[in-house]
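ok so i was messing around last nite and threw this chain in just to see what happens. nothing serious, just curious
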Amino acid sequence: MERNTVERVTEWDSEPFNDGYAGLHEFADRDFTGAVTDGAGWLFMLNGRVVGVFDGDLSQFSDADGTAYVAPDQSLPLLFAMQETGGEVRGEYYTEETPISEVDRTLQSGNFTGYVELSENVLSGDYYLVYYGGRRLPVAFVGNQERRLTGDEAFERAADEVGIYRVKTVDLEITDVPEPPGAGLTTAATTESATEEDATTPEEPAGSTPDETPKTATDTGTTTEPPTTDDTEDRTTEAESETEPERESDEATPAEAAKAAKTTETEATDSVAPERTPSESSTTSSRTQARTEPEPSSTSEETTAEPTPATDAAASRRSEFEAESEWQGTSTIPALDPDESVSMESETPPAETTADAGASTATDAGASATSAGVPPEEVEALRDERDRLQERVESLEEETERLGGERDRLERERDEAASAADQLENEVEELRSTVDELEAELEAAEADLAAAEEYMPEGDHEISPEEAMQGTSLFVRYEREGGPTLEDAYNGDADREAVNENVRLERHTEFEDAGALVDGQPFDEYLRDTIEYGFVNWLTRTFVHDIRETRNQTALGKLFDAIPDIDRIEFRGSVDLGEAAEDDDEEAPTESAAFDVVLRDRMGQPLIVTDLNDSREPATEPMLESLIRNATPVGEANERLSAAFYVTSSYYEPGALETAEEATGGGILSRGKNKSFVRLSRKDGYHLSLVETRDGEFHVSVPEL
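result:
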């Protein structure tokens, strides 16, 4: 069984499991839902029935001992059993084109058995809708901690998500727990003993008190000699005619009321679980009979005369078993067109039942009206008025349900609009603050420029900081070609000091850098003081060695593999994403994503992209969202992209850290060995790393090394 499944199951509440099949029968009698293991194999149960056995077969539990884990929700054992069994993908859909709510209605109306998995291109978590015979059991695993959600909350979260989901059919083998060895012999012996005891029970004399009405042979269940056929029929007819009015007039006894309540409770419990087969009902009844002493007043004549509750239960179980067989026989997915599907949210009784009930009511009403002297015309009018009011009630119920759905939709739109307005107000405030900062910086820069021009030596020229960075590129080169390289550091063939003595960063400018001044400072000094240059120097001289020394070569494998291939560093660079759609006869433009630093290989392929925050203000959630929004299409268009860095000279707000967790979090089917990994597909993605810098030192905040 999958390791992730075992880890999840062993987090549930546990209890001991003993005595093999006998212990499993005790679980079945109390409608156990969860998992049972003997240390090697695993067995999933739903409401007392076995829905899957893995890493072994059912026979190895015949005399086994082990541990049982109680599932916190019915959806979990059913989902895990379906995942371990495996199924067939019958469709793949995009939520923006085919909403999950439409498919849900179709699968419910089609008695579907299987599950819907929404996990691809979903950052918040993994979502599942499990179906058994069209009955839906939602479950979700949300966030980096994989918090479990079930029921309506899980379904609503899934319906609001955007991503790709798949519909899978699964054929589950529903199994009853076998009888323990020797159980049949014990039951037969007990039944025979009970029969003999009934035969030898002394006959209770009739009419024990003077006021008691003498009982017939049918009432007492005893006879002195076999009656003839004619006598039997006459006596039976007479007894029925005498006892029938009493049965009609008698009210339900307390015992019957308790039994009816228990039956209702059992049906409610089994509403979303596989029903037991008639053979299981018979087996359970035999076990119960073996443990219970026979009633002294029970007789064979009474048992034969009218059906017992066990017979009615067996007939009910046969009907439910046939319905279950129809659910399991559903091997195709119904049409996903909502116009062709039928909603199962409001179940209507069969037409025959309604008609019979109406006829019975009408007959009773007519009889009552006739006996009371009401004319037939008035009876017909009352019936018509009743039918009209019933139709009106149904119409109002449908209108109420429709208006309720419309109200819920408008409330959601209102909440979304309010949230969007709050977000826009926050962005406006941030932009205003940024504008004020830029105006202050512009005034200071203009003053510095005027002072610099006044005292600038002859031959020197001033360039702006943005022009200086945009026109500068760095190249990774070595003092000695035969000396230690980044490749040697990657392979562990050279230590930190030897490699750093040989590595150098050469610069290339698109402007005349001789005599160039930036903010009154010589260009070379200005460049070495920038956060961009410090980040590249740290990445090539320190970080590559830190990864190996902290033994994170595997957890940061894609990033670690890319560092020795760095050849050129571009400041204020952009990465092409491919051509956009053509507009009439005009040439199609090329889309691109811009970053503060882009590190490329010899062929110009982007290996690492970086955004920077060189202010005293903390890095915010929108800043992280912008980096992820730009880096993701780059990773999809370029398989060599290994990492996206965000570097700040301040710190990260909680919202920014939560954004990073959501982007790199995974569910039950998407967990991997990579740290802080943004998954683009099942086999590809890029690392997301958050770095803080102060006083020229760089520290990795995410992931933890």
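not much to say yet. The two ends are 31 Å apart (CA to CA).
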